[in-house]
Write a sequence for this structure.
């Protein structure tokens, strides 16, 4: 998938390395340029250092800086890319708080090819 | 053994693991992500899962052995275990983690200890089975065959 001649870029943010490896591979398989971060702080630092991404896959519960806090911080910096939350918490106040932090959408873990396909459709609409 | 026979055993063994609920569709996702550019992908991910799980189970045993059990810490470990087991499709481990978390919420030490045994048992079972599956995979490759695709089981 490309945008104006370059690859679509994505950032995977999760504290679990098994999940990072699986999600990264999944996105690479869809032809995306993919980077990973171990927590919200690392993700934020990447943006502060000048990196940009077309979308971010953000875990909810992480040490150092969690998903809701990182999402709020990114939005406060004016980051307007698509941020997709992933959580295993199901529907509840925590998920609602996460969404309210500035997510474009939120999915239940684990991420799979079908979910990535849906995300990319949404992204294509947003970019067109 | 002939390649076809190995491939048949592989399909039978894998479908058994799905049928008995050891693995779910997420494991098929991993298999679909394995390609020529990354022929050892499943092996690599599963190996990382084993390493992290061994460490998590060790940390959980220690945390539950304390005079004053820190349930928040235990819940965080179990949450992580649930996330990694579900991302490789180790369904029965994931289910055992869900029960574990409810005892954490109740701050029930006895319940947590029972769940730790349950989670350990399910983990060791799926580990043994995945190791056998990966050995079969290696035998097929060594014999010059291709790993059968598993899409029909997802």
């Amino acid at each position: 998938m490309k945008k104006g001649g370059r690859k679509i870029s994505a950032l995977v943010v999760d504290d679990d390395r098994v999940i990072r490896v699986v999600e990264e591979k999944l996105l690479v398989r869809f032809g995306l340029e993919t980077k990973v971060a171990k927590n919200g702080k690392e993700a934020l630092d990447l943006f502060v250092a000048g990196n940009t991404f077309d979308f971010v896959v953000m875990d909810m519960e992480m040490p150092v800086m969690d998903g809701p806090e990182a999402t709020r911080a990114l939005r406060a910096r004016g980051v307007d890319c698509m941020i997709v939350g992933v959580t295993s918490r199901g529907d509840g106040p925590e998920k609602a708080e996460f969404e309210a932090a500035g997510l474009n959408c939120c999915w239940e873990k684990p991420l799979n090819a079908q979910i990535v396909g849906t995300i990319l459709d949404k992204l294509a609409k947003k970019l067109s | 053994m002939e390649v076809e026979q190995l491939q048949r055993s592989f399909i039978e063994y894998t479908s058994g693991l799905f049928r008995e609920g050891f693995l779910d569709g997420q494991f098929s996702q991993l298999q679909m992500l394995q390609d020529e550019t990354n022929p050892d992908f499943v092996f690599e991910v599963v190996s990382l899962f084993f390493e992290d799980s061994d460490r998590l189970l060790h940390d959980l045993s220690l945390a539950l052995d304390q005079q004053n059990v820190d349930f928040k810490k235990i819940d965080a470990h179990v949450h992580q275990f649930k996330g990694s087991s579900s991302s490789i499709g180790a369904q029965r481990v994931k289910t055992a983690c869900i029960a574990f978390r409810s005892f954490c919420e109740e701050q029930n030490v006895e319940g947590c200890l029972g769940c730790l045994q349950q989670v350990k048992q399910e983990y060791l079972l799926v580990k043994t089975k995945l190791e056998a599956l990966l050995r079969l995979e290696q035998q097929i490759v060594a014999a010059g065959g291709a790993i059968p695709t598993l899409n029909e089981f997802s």
The interface with chain B takes residues 15-19, 21-23, 25-26, 29, 61, 88, 109-113 of chain A (CB under 8 Å). Residues 13 and 37 of chain A are 5 Å apart (CA to CA). Chain A has one domain: 2-127.
